[in-house]
Specification:
Blueprint lengths: L15 E2 L8 E2 L8 H40 L2 H23 L3 H21 L2 E3 L12 E7 L9 E6 L2 E3 L2 E4 L1 E6 L1
Parallel strand pairs: 1-2, 4-8
Antiparallel strand pairs: 3-6, 5-8, 6-7
C-alpha cells in the first residue's frame, strides 16, 4: 500500500489519525477532539428534562380537565332548575288558592295556566313531546307494552300511549311506552 503525502502549511499543525486502532490525539470521526460521552450525556440529560416537563404538563392538564368536568356535572342542570323556579312559585300560589277559594272553575283555570307555563319553559329548553298515537310503530322510538286487537286500518300502528316519549334537542331522551294494534 502506498502512502500519500499531504501538504500542510508550515504555520498550521494537524494531528489526525485515520485509524481508530492507532493511538493519537484526534480521529477523523471526531476532529475537534470533543469527548463524545460527555456530549451524549448532556443530550440525554436535556431530553430527560424535556420529557419530565412534558409529562408534568400533561399530568396537570389531566387534573385540570377532571376538575372542570366534575364542576360541570355538578352545575349542569343549574339553568334548567333556575328556569323552573318560576313554575314552582306558580305551583305554590296555586296550592294556596286551592285552600282559600271554593270556585272550581277558577282553580281549574289557574292549574291549567301553571301546567302550560311548565310545558312552555321546558320547550324553551329544547324539550319536545313525541307524537305517537296513530303513527306506525317504530322500535327506535317506541316501547311496546302490549298489543290489542284492532281493525285492519290500525294494525301495526300505535293505538294508545301509556307514557309519552320526549326529545331533547332532537335526541330521544325517553322512549314512548305504547299499545300496538295487531
Amino acid at each position: 500500500m502506498e502512502e500519500k503525502e499531504i501538504m500542510i502549511p508550515e504555520n498550521e499543525e494537524i494531528n489526525i489519525n485515520a485509524d481508530a486502532d492507532v493511538p493519537g490525539i484526534t480521529h477523523l470521526s471526531n476532529p475537534d477532539g470533543e469527548d463524545i460521552t460527555q456530549k451524549l450525556a448532556a443530550e440525554i440529560s436535556e431530553q430527560k428534562d424535556k420529557y419530565l416537563r412534558l409529562f408534568a404538563e400533561f399530568d396537570n392538564f389531566k387534573r385540570r380537565t377532571a376538575k372542570e368536568k366534575n364542576e360541570l356535572s355538578l352545575t349542569a342542570g343549574k339553568d334548567v332548575i333556575i328556569s323552573l323556579l318560576e313554575v314552582m312559585d306558580d305551583c305554590d300560589r296555586a296550592e294556596k288558592q286551592l285552600k282559600e277559594i271554593d270556585d272550581i272553575a277558577v282553580q281549574k283555570e289557574g292549574i291549567i295556566l301553571v301546567f302550560n307555563k311548565l310545558r312552555n319553559t321546558l320547550q324553551a329548553r329544547g324539550l319536545t313531546a313525541m307524537e305517537s298515537i296513530a303513527t306506525e310503530f317504530e322500535v327506535e322510538k317506541h316501547e311496546a307494552i302490549t298489543e290489542m286487537e284492532v281493525s285492519d286500518k290500525m294494525k301495526g300502528k300505535v293505538v294508545d300511549e301509556i307514557e309519552k316519549g320526549y326529545y331533547l334537542n332532537n335526541k330521544i331522551i325517553r322512549f314512548a311506552k305504547v299499545v300496538v294494534g295487531k
